[in-house]
Amino acid sequence: MTATSDRRATTSGAPVTSVDAPGEARVDVDELSSLLLGRWADLRAAARATAGEEAFWRVEGQPKEVHREHVLEQMHLLVGKQQVWRAFPERLGGANDPGGNLAGFEELVAADPSLQIKAGVQWGLFSSAILHLGLPEQHDRLLPGAMDLSVPGAFAMTETGHGSDVASIGTTATYDPQSEEFVLHTPFRGAWKDYLGNAAVHATAAVVFAQLVTKNVDHGVHAFYVPIRDPQGERDAHGALPFLPGVGGEDDGQKGGLNGIDNGRLHFDHVRVPRADLLARYGSVDADGTYESPIDSPGRRFFTMLGSLVQGRVSLDGAAVTASKLGLAIAVRYANERRQFTGASPTEEMVLLDYGTHKRRLIVPIAEAYAAHFAHDRLLDLFHSVFSGEEDTPEQREDLETTAAALKATSTRFALDTLQETREACGGAGFLTENRITSLHADMDVYATFEGDNTVLLQLVAKRLLKDYAAQFKGITPGRMARVVVERASDMALHRTPLKRAAQALADVGDVRRAAGHLRDAETQRELLTDRVESMVAEVAQALRPAQKADPETAANLFNAHQVELVEAARAHAELLRWEAFTQALSTIEDEGTREVLTTVRDLYGLSLVERHLDWYLLNGRLSTQRARTVTSYLDRLIDRLRPHAQDLVDAWGYGPEHLRAKIASGAEKQRQDEARDYYRRLRASGDEPLSEKSLRKAERATNGSSVATRH
Amino acid sequence: MTATSDRRATTSGAPVTSVDAPGEARVDVDELSSLLLGRWADLRAAARATAGEEAFWRVEGQPKEVHREHVLEQMHLLVGKQQVWRAFPERLGGANDPGGNLAGFEELVAADPSLQIKAGVQWGLFSSAILHLGLPEQHDRLLPGAMDLSVPGAFAMTETGHGSDVASIGTTATYDPQSEEFVLHTPFRGAWKDYLGNAAVHATAAVVFAQLVTKNVDHGVHAFYVPIRDPQGERDAHGALPFLPGVGGEDDGQKGGLNGIDNGRLHFDHVRVPRADLLARYGSVDADGTYESPIDSPGRRFFTMLGSLVQGRVSLDGAAVTASKLGLAIAVRYANERRQFTGASPTEEMVLLDYGTHKRRLIVPIAEAYAAHFAHDRLLDLFHSVFSGEEDTPEQREDLETTAAALKATSTRFALDTLQETREACGGAGFLTENRITSLHADMDVYATFEGDNTVLLQLVAKRLLKDYAAQFKGITPGRMARVVVERASDMALHRTPLKRAAQALADVGDVRRAAGHLRDAETQRELLTDRVESMVAEVAQALRPAQKADPETAANLFNAHQVELVEAARAHAELLRWEAFTQALSTIEDEGTREVLTTVRDLYGLSLVERHLDWYLLNGRLSTQRARTVTSYLDRLIDRLRPHAQDLVDAWGYGPEHLRAKIASGAEKQRQDEARDYYRRLRASGDEPLSEKSLRKAERATNGSSVATRH
């Protein structure tokens, strides 16, 4: 199925209620839809078609045991499609196409987020760890079973006691030169591996992360391939094979969502792992126990190993954007059909999307979803260029990791906010499972804290921003440095005194349109957003300066005291990335009407950020109060301008009824509304309509000549 | 169980990690706990003890069919406790104690929100409708079965096509004088009753709302008592009795939460209802079909009938506050025990609650929960004074309805935000059902849109604010009016020009402490919050003035164009109500240390509102940028000051492990942390600890005399 046919499926049989005003720009939905499929359009379209096949749908209301088996069966079906193998080497049946692989993988979220994440565990984490941390010999030996799902695997990194701080995990793998084996051991309860997909029931092997100790030296975290269940053993009541000797574990049980995945815990009691099963790309141990690594620095080695697994974050960014689109597509369709209360007309009820609050709560997130979409496209490019080897430099890797962290943290937050908002925008109907949104929210919930807790990720981003900031001053002469400081100080002073504000105010006096036009200018938006990131970073850097010469305790406390600002600066950076990606994408749109509408969408996104952070712009003198006052009213105008295009904008995402699977987005609501209106029209026409007491009393009052003030 | 013993249960066996600095104020947790039990302390404590009994707990992971039957059984157990009857007349076994009834009822949310809401359907809606809309004869005849649950009932008001706009429901009840019956009929699909608790399986009767038509006049919405299932019939596979002739329906199926309630749809095909079963307090029909009502105005009659059911909103406000407290109590306990990353110490990991972002994300909501608590106490007082008849005036009723709408809308929003934040603050553990928060979030989700959609409720509040604003000018002479307008305009101008800002800036120059001290002053906070509400209302009123003389269409469009500001003004009003309630409550605290800490909590709440709306204060010249700059840093100081009291502040809410029922809030985390630290301490002491490669390399570099800049 192509995007074009998807689009037709969305709108056919149920005409969209909103109609453009004549002469206005129109979105060419088919063209936009094609454009949005992006660089790997065919792969993405094929994966989307797969997600729309009933065999891959989530069956709501299944007990977790049934749901888990259902998803496992779907995974076997996916193996048949081989799309899931694209990232792997050609000699093993793959296509060495990491970007195309992710483009398709992300689409699975529309089928069932449990399927996406369980597939992510198998092919994105377990198999990828073998691929990226293993040697070619290990690929040949271990990947085929992982790829074809004959060996379902767990990715045993996180421990109950250590989530984000992987470097501090407690599991140890101590080399024994006598037997040429590692002894894998869990020394205490907090070091149990936890939250591992596949671990509760299905996994027969795991990639286990442990502190590698040899010759009494701890070389830090390394990965080991470890069989954990006996494939020849007898299954228990839950369908699980027996653990191998020394291995134990338990089921994480019911979760807030993603119950199609059997998350569980694992622990190891002196389990022996052959030397050959240390995934040895970044560190190996020879027979007598001598450790060797192509990367000397233990710190850099650790981050390189972890960095090779960045694709999880990249794909969560994409999946989160998709889930947001699904929620918005459902809510916008419903808001375009659902009527409630009479507004301007005495008999016709108003559609929800014409209400001031409703327009705002849905159209602003549409703009953000577009921005997040284009930013994700750029991230996918960057990911592909590094992992395909097209441009695999340390700088590109660092950019990729920073960008993935920034976007994953913001888009998963956005998905949760948007799904909550869309669910509420659908009222009681939004709460019914048949309308999908609550299930999506429940499943997406954990995206905010897994594959890197969002708060921790944003700190990583902030540290990078600080590093880049400091690098500007590297090798600078003391004299030049002094000048920079003075310039910056006077710049700050200018912003903070009423001078700049006064200038803006003068320029805008009596001319609200000029102020608004100013805001619409792309360069102004860029300047406002860029300036905010740079100023925040500079300000935090300034505040953290004493840390350089302080003792570690004081430095840590100082850093902690500025954690909130650091995270906020990182968020601002992510917002700017999205805005830039959106702006860049505009130039690729050929159809003029589409480009015009999308430019308004971009403006809406940019201005919504300025409105969101208006206090900052005012506090720091970047906007005069006169100019700031126009932000909200201008935003309202943009929303009104986009109102007629709302349905087109969500249709262009290319998700049909087979993806939305929400009764209220199936045309059922329109049918009900039409039936009710027909009923009342017929009743009025028939002459049998009862008179209303209200209008009778009004008539009575008129007859008695009594004024409206008469009380009854 | 008393609150005191609850409190001991919470902290016994697991000492709180935070300790006050010597000499600082301390919270007397027991005293505060007693104070928070409020006016109906014994009833509340008894209900809380009930909620803590295992028989009333939610069993997680039950399929909806099992969960529904489980909750029904729990309801029968509740009947035995008779607390649920307190609102009913004494002659029927009640206590005519509406306030005490709700105080207890709200606590059920800690057992299982499904139980709370299903109990609310039976006794708060179905039975209450009979009580408030029926005549004494109808009470005697219909209430006993409703009260003792021999007649499980549905409250059939909402229709698929009409949620918030009850006046427009499509179901009709047309009087037939021949048989002295009403003919109850559903004319189209949109008029099916929907989302009705008890309707899918358990209800054998319903209070059905329909447009009452007699003698060809539609007298608007009235309520009818209607048997819907045959108690003598045979149960189907789902345990449901057969529908009576003419009645049909279907199951709403799985929902995003509250799956212990069997929500369903009902429809009626010319079902005959005896004249005696019109609940006739506010409107009756005599044998020949003549309609009579004690309230002449159909509009006022409608709002009086609906207003008599306000207790649902009141109790949701209380339940939402309780759910927020449960989430915070779990997350704060965990954040006080969970350690991650080393901070200031090289070996000891930091507890989460010491991190800058974590402190803020949990301690600010603690302050808001206190504010919401005290505001709810006031609402309960107001509710009791009206419904017990102590002070049942139209003005009091109007205040009650406005306050209930304002607080329900803000506390249900707060509960969802807080449960989301606390779930994320607990990382992956927060996503496990065994840690409770996700289930609470799923259940509370619908609180935002049922018993009045929050957006609609906030508009009701805004309309009242506009009405009150207009009333100020009632009977005013044109001359005086002109002066008021001029004064207001010059006042506005003063705020908007740099004059007032300049004055503040001058006052604060070089004295950050003075600016902060100013913000701490209660009168300043009150002025800032009050001024914001009043100014927003005045501004919207001004903008809506042309609507008075405009045609209905223009007026409706104008109103809609300002809907966002109206809702925002209503929210500001709710925030002020909470702040005032909190401030008033401070004076009732006898223990000095407790009062001092709670005053800081109140300041934190007040200042967090100012920070949240800082853009407004800046835009409208209420704060100079100099003064506004101190808001966040002062807030940070308040958070730091409250950090050592965080555990006490959540403990004082009086929810023990039997209410929290979260493994991570059971002391298990502390045990794990202690075990891990003991392990490492022993390892270091034993001399068997492997050397780390990192420190070896550092030592190597030092020996080689190479600088830190040397790359490995």
Automatic annotation (TrEMBL), chains A, B:
- Location of the Acyl-CoA oxidase/dehydrogenase middle domain: 154-271
Any Pfam family matching the protein: Acyl-CoA_dh_M
The Acyl-CoA oxidase C-terminal domain extends over: 523-664
The Enzyme Commission number assigned here is 1.3.3.6
* Cofactor(s), names only, from the UniProt record: FAD
InterPro entries (UniProt xref): ACOX_C_alpha1, Acyl-CoA_Oxase/DH_mid-dom, Acyl-CoA_Oxase/DH_mid-dom_sf, Acyl-CoA_oxidase, Acyl-CoA_oxidase_C, AcylCo_DH-like_C, AcylCoA_DH/oxidase_NM_dom_sf
Protein name in UniProt? acyl-CoA oxidase
- Tell me what organism the protein belongs to: Cellulosimicrobium arenosum
